[in-house]
Amino acid sequence: MSFDSFSDLLAMGGHALYVWLSYGVSLIVIVWNAWRVRSERVRFFRDARAQQRRNAAAAQSGRSL
Fold first, then answer.
1. Residues 40-62: what's their mean pLDDT?
2. Sign of the torsion formed by the C-alpha atoms of 38, 44, 45 and 50
3. Are 55 and 65 in contact (CB under 8 A)?
């Protein structure tokens, strides 16, 4: 599909609201997913470090888990 002008591109043949809203929602979902993956990864490693510290402290005190 080709457009004669930039304003025709933005109008999308009369379907601009649907098209640009779809792009916007898709972008929001992609950004949300990337943010969630990163935050879950940070939390996982933070919890793993805390567990290692607890295990090390328990080993020093002579307790077994």
1. 94
2. positive
3. yes
Residue 51 has pLDDT above 90, yes or no: yes
- Taking the model in full, what pTM does it have? 0.66
29: its two tokens: 């979902």
Residues 28 and 22: beta-carbon distance below 8 Å: no
Residue type at position 65:
L
When divided into structural domains, the chain yields a total of: 1
Q: Which domain holds residue 31?
A: 15-61
Cβ proximity of 12 and 4 under 8 Å: no
- φ, ψ dihedrals at 3, nearest 5°: -120, 145
Q: Per this entry, what is the length of the chain?
A: 65
Closest CA to 51 of 40, 65, 37: 65
